[in-house]
Amino acid sequence: MAKKNFYIVKKGHKTGIFDNWAECQASVKGYKGAVFKGFETKAEALEWLNGSEDTTPRQDSGNEDRAKTARDVDFDVYTDGSYAKGKYSYGYAFVKDGRIVHENNGVGEDLEAAGMRNVAGEIAAVCHAVEKAKSLNVRIRIYHDYSGISHWVTGDWQAKNKFTQAYVAFMRAHHGLYEFQKVAGHSGDRFNDYVDLLAKQALGISRTK
């Protein structure tokens, strides 16, 4: 599929033409009945913007390689982080048809990042999951329980330190590989609880915080 270089938003928080998916996504995320579309050339984008083509509400994944819609993903991926005694950890699990098909966890190595406590683990979990998705050439839906995971990327929250800024840059560079889904932490969600446990196991601590 041809690379999408321009995005038109006809109905959203902000309307008009955008030259990157991150801004387009921020303009339509959470907007009921959003209408938007990606194009290879600016001329095609402007033609659609000014024309009378179908404006049925739709979603566009921004995936430059695989022509998937925002709901068309290969795996649901649950992510979480933990922190104890100056160290942070991460855990993630790839889920397909209600079954875990791949999982991983580990301890973060950046001592400075540990100052962000479990948030550093949350970020690490998502980045490792995206790297795995890239290696598998798949698209994923990332389930997270910390709001910043998605809000930094969409621009709803400002990335104020070098770690969150690096995270945003990484995620925007891989924007076609994922979409976000917020879940409530410790709410009885089976897989969210599982990756919480995975992260804790990496640090050798119990489930109870």
Structure commentary:
- Residues 71-204 form the RNase H type-1 domain.
- It holds the Pfam family Cauli_VI.
- The protein starts with 5 loop residues before the first strand and ends in a 6-residue tail after the last helix.
- Helices cover 33% and strands 25% of the residues.
- 35% of the residues are buried.
- The chain is an alpha/beta fold and 209 residues long.
- The chain is built from 6 helices and 8 strands.
- The strands form 2 sheets. A 5-stranded mixed sheet has the order 6-5-4-7-8.
- It folds into 2 domains: 6-50, Ribonuclease H1, N-terminal domain (Ribonuclease HI, Chain A, 3-Layer(aba) Sandwich); 75-203, Ribonuclease H-like superfamily/Ribonuclease H (Nucleotidyltransferase, domain 5, 2-Layer Sandwich), CATH 3.30.420.10.
- α3 (118-136) runs parallel beside α5.
Major beta sheet, specifics? 5 strands, mixed
Q: Find the structural class using helix and strand composition.
A: alpha/beta
Q: Which CATH first-tier class of the largest domain would you pick?
A: Alpha Beta
Q: What is the number of helical segments per DSSP (H or I, 4+ residues)?
A: 6
Element-level helix/strand string: EEHEHEEEHEHHEH
pLDDT < 50 stretches: 52-71
How are strands sequenced across the largest beta sheet?
6-5-4-7-8
How far from one another are the termini? Answer: 46 Å
Radius of gyration in whole Å, from Cα?
18 Å
Q: CATH architecture of the largest domain, please?
A: 2-Layer Sandwich
CATH topology of the largest domain: Nucleotidyltransferase, domain 5
| Quantity of strands, as a count | 8
Mean pLDDT: 84
Number of domains: 2
Residue share in helix: 25-40%
InterPro entries: Ribosomal_bL9/RNase_H1_N, RNase_H, RNase_H1_N, RNase_H1_N_sf, RNaseH-like_sf, RNaseH_domain, RNaseH_sf
Cofactor: Mg(2+)
Protein name: ribonuclease H
EC number: 3.1.26.4
